[in-house]
Every structure is written in C-alpha cells, then in structure tokens.
C-alpha cells in the first residue's frame, strides 16, 4: 500500500537517551528556510515537517514526511499514534515507540478480547537486528515475530515459563517468567504475537496475562511485578534502519535523484533495497544535504589529534598536520621534533655523530622490542589456545574420550593451522551454508580428503554441553545414511567440527528450488524416504544407545554423489537409556516440523521424530514447503493442509506434478496413508520407524523385487554388525514389511 506520511507523533518529554548520535548542532541539518525541530526533537533532512522540506519518495510518496501540530498542546501527527524519540542521519536509524502485545485469560482458561495489533509498514523502515530484542513475559507464554526479508517469510520466537512466582528472578530474562531472543536480520512489515501454551490455567492465581514485544535491548530490565500488574498497551522504544530510494549505490549514483552530498559516500544495506549516505573521514554533518558534510577542525579539540607538546596542529580539509614548534626541526625517518642547534658554535661533525648514535640506539631498541614481542606473542598464542580448549569443552570431551561408555576413539582432534590451511583461512568463497548453530565451509585436508568444516557460533556456558553432545552422538553412529563425523578443533575461539563432505546439497533445495539438472523422480523420492526412515530406525532402535534426533527437516537431509540421503545436524539430539520413553526439555525445533504433542507437553519421544519425518514425507509427495504464506490461513501448515486434503479426498489435487506423472496411483495412496499415520496428533497412534521402514521397503520391492531385496539384506546386515544388535525373528526384511503393510485405500 502507498504511504502519504510517516504515521508518528513526537513527544515534548525530553528526547530519550540513545546510542544514535544526532547531527552536531554547529552543522546544518535541514534544507534552507525549513524548520528543523518539533518540540525537543531535531528533524534532519531527508525527513521534514512541511511540503518541500522532506525528500519525496518513489512515485511521489511521502515516506519522509513528519507532521507536527501544536494545537493539542504537544506536537502530533494528523493520523497515527506512534511516538518518535530520535532520528540519526549518522547511522541511518530512527527510534519509535511501539505497542506491546497482551494475551490475557479468565479463570476458566478463556482468552479475553484484545486490541488489534497496530502495525508500522513504512517501506523505508527495516527493524534493527543489532539494537533490538524480542521479549516474552509470562509464566505460560511464548512470543514470536514474523515478517518478510526479500519477500521471504521469517520467524523468531522464545518461550517463557515458570511454576510459581518464586522461580522468577528480577533482572533475569533467560526463560523463567521472561525470555528474549534475537531479531532476524533485514526484517520488514513485521507483526508480534503473544500466545499461551495452557491458557494460564496453572498459573492464573499469580499470572493471568502474557506479553510479547520488541524493545531496544539496553532499555529493558525485567521485574517480577510484570507478572501480576497488567501493562496494557504500554509503548516501548524500538530502533529501525531506514534507506533512500529503491536502488543500490551502483545504480543510484547515475540517477538524477541521487542525493548524497559533497564529502560523503554511499553505503548499501545488507538486505532490502535503497542506500544511505555517510560523511567521509574527517568530515561531519548531514550527508544528505549538498554541503552538509563539513570539515572538522581537529586542532580545536586535543583528543581529535595526536600532536605532541613540541608540535603545533595545523588543520587542513579532511585531516591535519603536526608541525614542529619554533626552535625544533623534524628528524627523519623517525619524524620526531628535535632541538635546532644550527645557531650554536659546535662542529657539524658532533651533531652528525649524535644523530648517527641516536639512530643506531633507536634501531637497537626496535630490534630488541621486536624479538621480545615475537616471544611474548608466541607464548600468548599457546596460552590462548589452552584457554579456548578449556572454554570450548576440551576437558569435558577428554573425559568422554577416556570413558568406556562412549565409543569416540575415532574422533580426531585437529589443530587450528591445519583447518585454516584447508579452508584458505575460512574464505567466504568456501562457505557451503549457514544454520542456527554455525557456518559450514568446504575444505581439503593435507591427505587430499574433501571435508565439510562447521564453524560453530560462540560456545557459551549455556550451550557447551550441546556442542560436546553433537560430537559424542555423531561419534557413536555408524550408518551409511548418517553424516560421518571425522573430528573437531577446540583451540580456537570459535570451535570447529569436521564432517565428511556431502557434495549435492540438501533435499530442501531439490524440492523447493528450481533444479532442471537433476529433477527428483518418483523412484528417487521413494528411495530417499526409505533411506531417511532407515537412518531414524537405526538411531531409535539399533544404535549403541537410543538417540532422538529432534530436528528432522528437509534442510537437514543431505544428498551425496550418488544421491543417497544423509541425515545431518545433531546439535539438539539426545541420548536416552533403553528403558527411557521420553526426555523433558524446553521446546526446540523448527516451525512446520514440530510435534504438536511435544509442543504442548515439552516431552520429546521417538514418535516426535516420526511426526517430523511425516512432514518430510508430505514434502516429497507434494513439493510444498512446510510453512507457506501463499496458502490460506488454515492451510499455512503443510501437515494441516495435507490432512485436510486427505479428509476431503483431494489428495491428487495437491501432489507434485512429477509425482502425478511418474508414480503408480496405488503406491502414492499407500505412502500418503503412511504419512497421515505419522502425522497423527496422538503420538501413541503413530507407527514406529521400524514399521515405517518395512512399509516403504515393501513398496520399493513391489517395483524392483530382486535388486531392492539384496540391498535391504545388505543394509540390515551392515547395521546389525556395526551396532552389535541382533533380532530373534527369522523372517526376511521383505516378509516383515509385507506382513506389516495393511493399508486401507480411501
């Protein structure tokens, strides 16, 4: 929708303290003969208060217009009710007071009416991911923000929970009564949502409402009083980035409407369109005005120059010079001021000798200093590596290596220099992808092996065990459909994991991105589904200790050189004992794949992995994404969309075109029924991964009996030998699959 003005009002109450530095008062901020203040707030160009004093937007729109009226006793806009508390041309940011979201319930668990969300959709605004945090307050609450980055829907969320008010600590926002999380980078047109897991029924006596809001990180300090005292529609400061126009610098510079003034430079944002202007070094002011960036006289303030007491500072455009005072001259090459004794009676030879002696002395001191610095630096590097090794869980991993309970003997500890060489010092050209726990680089070891090196995000104390957890779990897995861990490096600030290299990308790319070189046939999809199911069956039932993966999704399924499926990313996985039926944790996972039963109970079972696999199976059938804003509101979730289509007997209306064209109709119906069972809301009624494997193998055998039978026997024999597990049944894999595949056709 078009914008005719910024929908904000400005406050007379003093400008809120901000890290965004306003333009210095001695430099012009607005166009000539234009007002530059509304109350206590300075309004710098390209923003303006009247016609002709602000920058016209694309197609003549007025995104930069700020209306200021004094008739009501304070400046305000003619429409809208958002407060502006600061505008910075130096950082290209604006601070606006936004409304929080409230989610309240009565004693019966019924949600109370709430005001509709007030949205700020100015196209020039992008919410700052460095200055703000998403916060949820409540003992049975969760908050999430969703918005668009380059036309893609992006989510971020967190859950706040507690059983009593005594669990809550003032000033702490780490999950008990309050949680906070980062804002995705480049987010526009966002909305904030507040929801409850159990409608506050179990905490209603002391906490009846939950809150969700975005706030400037340094402006929020949690108090337990927020749980009992309603804070209805309180406004909070939020920082936004803003840009000019719709084109990046390279194109904008050649247009007549390019507005970066003299002594300024053009800067592109990382995401989105447009550009912003900055004064070059040595200049300050408003870079959006023709002569807005003016020279700084560094000589007027001592802290702005490094001239000594023997020198005088001389200002020049964009910089300054330090010249020697009278009676001194500049000695080269040290460029230091020394007394000028040319008027004395001493022989020039004496001065020459003094000069040579001074130079030799300085060179000697420099040499000694360099040697000492090199020795100190080497010792510091060794000490620092030991510090990082300990900080990144090296001692914990050593205990795991020496323990008889975990088979991690084959894990290699790499040194940092070896992995730096393997990745050209972690060159951006070697990046394979980025995820929630780190960045993956392609590398070549000294023995010629191609590997994938995962550079983890900084390991804090809170997720140290999670990092070691991935090493221990992957070191115990021996399966051809699971990514193999080769080793790790802990002596860097950012820890590294080294995996086998899987060359053909993720299953998500082949399903949801155009790929004419290798389209997925029906047989390939059925084969990949069987391999994923086989890996999960191994994790649940055949590994040395049962393993719950906890993040099965198409982006965590890799395809090797023969397009075999490889399950990856075990950062959130859990080892469980043989008699353990579930693990209780804070809810973690990916929207669209998350088991609803786990979301409600926080108890993750092997059937939760089955649910996530069911979503992947539906992706293979339909080619649809797990969450999509292009579907109707009730069909945004792929699982709900699929179940509804099955119920209405519209299965073949939602299938991928290639599946409809190449597959056998009865095979598709059997696989769809299997997916439907995997997505059952009651986990106990879902099949086990053992049953899923045998049913998929039975379908594949019907298409290619002998070949698949031999592969199945080989895979089963290989998995059993590697894990030391034996079955008492004498049936073949296919016989078991056939006997367990009783499918009712719709």
TrEMBL record:
Compartments reported by the entry: Membrane
Alphabetical GO biological process terms: cell surface receptor signaling pathway
PROSITE patterns: ASX_HYDROXYL (PS00010), EGF_3 (PS50026), EGF_CA (PS01187), PROTEIN_KINASE_ATP (PS00107), PROTEIN_KINASE_DOM (PS50011), PROTEIN_KINASE_ST (PS00108)
SUPFAM superfamilies: EGF/Laminin, Protein kinase-like (PK-like)
Keywords: ATP-binding, Disulfide bond, EGF-like domain, Glycoprotein, Kinase, Membrane, Nucleotide-binding, Phosphoprotein, Repeat, Serine/threonine-protein kinase, Signal, Transferase, Transmembrane, Transmembrane helix
Signal peptide interval: 1-21
Protein name as annotated: Uncharacterized protein
Organism expressing this protein natively: Quercus rubra
Lineage, broadest ranks: Eukaryota, Viridiplantae, Streptophyta, Embryophyta, Tracheophyta
């Amino acid at each position: 929708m078009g914008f005719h003005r910024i929908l904000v009002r400005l406050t007379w109450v003093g400008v809120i303290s901000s890290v965004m530095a306003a333009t210095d008062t001695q430099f012009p901020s607005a166009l000539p003969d234009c007002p530059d203040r509304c109350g206590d707030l300075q309004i710098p160009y390209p923003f303006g208060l009247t016609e002709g004093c602000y920058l016209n937007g694309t197609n003549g729109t007025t995104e930069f217009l700020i209306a200021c009226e004094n008739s009501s006793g304070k400046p305000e806009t003619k429409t809208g009710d958002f407060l502006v508390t600061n505008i910075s041309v130096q950082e290209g940011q604006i601070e606006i007071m936004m409304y929080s979201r409230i989610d309240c319930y009565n004693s019966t668990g019924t949600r109370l009416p709430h005001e509709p969300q007030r949205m700020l959709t100015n196209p020039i605004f992008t919410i700052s991911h460095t200055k703000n945090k998403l916060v949820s307050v409540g003992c049975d609450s969760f908050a999430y923000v969703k918005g668009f980055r380059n036309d893609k829907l992006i989510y971020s969320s967190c859950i706040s929970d507690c059983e009593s008010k005594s669990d809550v600590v003032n000033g702490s926002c780490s999950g008990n009564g309050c949680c906070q999380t980062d804002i995705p980078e480049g987010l526009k047109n966002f909305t904030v949502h507040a929801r409850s897991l159990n409608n506050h029924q179990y905490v209603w006596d002391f906490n009846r409402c939950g809150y969700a809001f975005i706030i400037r990180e340094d402006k929020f300090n949690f108090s337990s009083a927020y749980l009992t005292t309603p804070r209805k529609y309180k406004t909070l400061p939020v920082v936004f980035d803003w840009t000019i126009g719709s084109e990046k610098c390279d194109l904008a510079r050649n247009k007549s409407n390019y507005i970066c003034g003299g002594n300024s430079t053009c800067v592109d944002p990382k995401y989105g369109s447009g550009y912003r202007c900055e004064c070059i070094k040595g200049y300050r002011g408003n870079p959006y005005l023709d002569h807005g960036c003016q020279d700084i006289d560094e000589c007027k303030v001592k802290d702005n120059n490094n001239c000594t007491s023997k020198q005088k500072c001389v200002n020049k455009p964009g910089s300054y010079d330090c010249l020697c005072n009278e009676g001194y001259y500049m000695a080269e090459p040290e460029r230091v001021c020394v007394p000028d004794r040319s008027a004395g009676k001493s022989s020039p030879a004496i001065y020459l000798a003094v000069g040579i002696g001074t130079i030799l002395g300085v060179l000697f001191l420099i040499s000694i200093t360099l040697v000492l610095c090199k020795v100190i630096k080497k010792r510091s590097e060794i000490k620092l590596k030991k510090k990082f090794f300990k900080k990144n869980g090296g001692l914990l991993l050593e205990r795991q290596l020496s323990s008889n309970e975990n088979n991690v003997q084959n894990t290699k500890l790499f040194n940092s220099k070896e992995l730096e060489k393997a990745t050209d010092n972690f060159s951006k050209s070697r990046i394979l992808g980025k995820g929630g726990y780190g960045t993956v680089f392609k590398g070549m070891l000294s023995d010629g092996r191609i590997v994938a090196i995962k550079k983890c995000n900084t390991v804090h104390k809170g997720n140290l065990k999670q990092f070691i957890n991935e090493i221990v779990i992957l070191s115990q897995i021996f399966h051809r459909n699971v990514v193999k861990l080769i080793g790790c490096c802990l002596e860097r600030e950012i820890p590294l994991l080294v995996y086998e290299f899987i060359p053909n990308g993720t299953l998500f790319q082949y399903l949801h991105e155009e790929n004419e070189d290798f389209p997925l046939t029906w047989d390939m999809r059925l084969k990949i589904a069987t391999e994923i199911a086989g890996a999960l069956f191994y994790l649940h039932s055949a590994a040395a200790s049962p393993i719950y993966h906890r993040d099965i999704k198409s982006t965590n399924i890799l395809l090797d050189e023969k397009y075999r499926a490889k399950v990856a990313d075990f950062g959130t996985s859990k080892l469980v004992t043989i008699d353990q039926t579930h693990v209780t944790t804070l809810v973690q996972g990916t929207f669209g794949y998350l088991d609803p039963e786990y979301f409600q109970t926080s108890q993750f079972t092997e059937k939760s992995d089955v649910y996530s696999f069911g979503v992947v199976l539906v992706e293979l059938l339909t080619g649809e994404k797990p969450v999509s804003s292009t579907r109707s509101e009730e069909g945004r979730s792929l699982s709900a969309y699929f179940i509804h289509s099955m119920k209405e007997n519209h299965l073949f209306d939602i299938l991928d075109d290639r599946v409809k064209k190449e597959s056998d109709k009865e095979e598709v119906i059997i696989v769809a029924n299997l997916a439907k069972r995997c997505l059952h809301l009651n986990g106990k009624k879902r099949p086990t991964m053992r049953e899923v494997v045998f049913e998929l193998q039975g379908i594949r055998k019907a298409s290619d009996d002998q070949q698949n039978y031999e592969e199945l026997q080989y895979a089963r024999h290989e998995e059993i030998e590697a894990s030391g597990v034996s079955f008492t049944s004498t049936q073949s894999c296919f016989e078991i699959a056939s006997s367990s595949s009783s499918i009712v056709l719709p």
